[in-house]
Sequence to fold (78 residues):
Amino acid sequence: MSKNTGKARKRIINLKEVQIPTYIFQDRTLSVLEALSEYLHLTRKLTYHEIAVLLNRDDRTIWTCCHRAEIKREKIKE
Fold:
């Protein structure tokens, strides 16, 4: 029986396994990185860190892109 050390298991995600639909880029108010980050975070349920590793970016950059996309979407709804 193995001990639970409290460490989370790492989820390995291969970029080849992730299929990106082109319709997410139709909204021209978002940059490509904002649209892609938002899609991966909200739809595919990836963490900011997992997205950052896939796209070879910093976690903070991905958070910023998702946050900006959220703000832009709120402005459109108003």
The longest helix spans residues 59-77. The chain has a mean pLDDT of 87.
